[in-house]
Amino acid sequence: MITGTVKELADRYGTELLIMTGFLDGINESLKGYENPIDTMEEDTQVKIEIDPEKLYYNMVEAKADWLYELPMWDDILTEEKRKELYKTQKASGTIRKDKKVFPNDPCPCGSGKKYKKCCGKNA
Questions:
Q1: Distance CA 100, CA 94 (A)
Q2: With a threshold of 0.90, does the pTM exceed it?
């Protein structure tokens, strides 16, 4: 875990305060168990950075940031199977799935062998 004020972290990593704030905002939803106070952040705000790699990968896929989630460095962080699983889970999260509609003359989904209208659909 990395801790410090926003200014201390910007100085430690040799970047501008504005870039560090943007970085913190970008990874905020990928942190383990908490988020930093982005809306009220000032240069002396204490922040914690403990990235959850699975959340980060998922969020990169959601942001369509293929230049990031396809980096070869991910090979050392998450297995290929895990990355595929996270990719599929994220892509499926935006898909609307409608349940198959049961019509009166269809077989009843309860498995009775009767038509829906004579079984579970009788009182529907």
A1: 19
A2: no
